[in-house]
Amino acid sequence: MKLRAYLDFICAAKTLEELWLEHVRQMGDYKFDKLLYGYTRQKTKTSLGDPEDFVILSNHCSEYVEGFVNSGLYFDAPMLHWALENDGPGSWTLVQDQISNGGLSESAQKVLEFNAKHGVTAGYTVSFNSSSDRFKGAISLAACDGLNQDDVEDIWREHGRDITLMNNMAHLKRS
């Protein structure tokens, strides 16, 4: 689906399920086949609020969601911390830079080990601009198995603006 057709679809989507399924398909066309979207309206300086109040959408396997989300690994994820402080797209190269500089905590390293076990090793995170400091949303776009971060950077150079726009529009429709 071309960008304009996708945006028309987003505007006309009647259900969250319809929107999410098409969004997953669209991101898959760009070689991002493992998505994790999260949104809270209860963020404070020290908390994201009650996890029971989070909106979480994912097409990851249940074992991944159980470990990363339900068991709380997300709390130590480097790109989550990045997303809380930034808006827009963030390359996972940021994490590779932290590894090279020895700047990752032991708990963050455990998150990366868990991610690697599930093929979540290359990608981008899009952090959404919010109208309130209490609201925050982001989406993790993990690349297909077999792609590395250099491959992802090539995809992003060519299509990053469209991918960011598609994710922003899907987020706005959802929230």
Automatic annotation (TrEMBL):
The keyword DNA-binding applies. Keywords: DNA-binding, Transcription, Transcription regulation. Residues 16-173 form the Transcription factor LuxR-like autoinducer-binding domain. Gene3D superfamilies: Transcription factor LuxR-like, autoinducer-binding domain. It holds the Pfam family Autoind_bind. It comes from the Bacteria. One of its GO terms (molecular function) is DNA binding. This is Autoinducer binding domain protein.
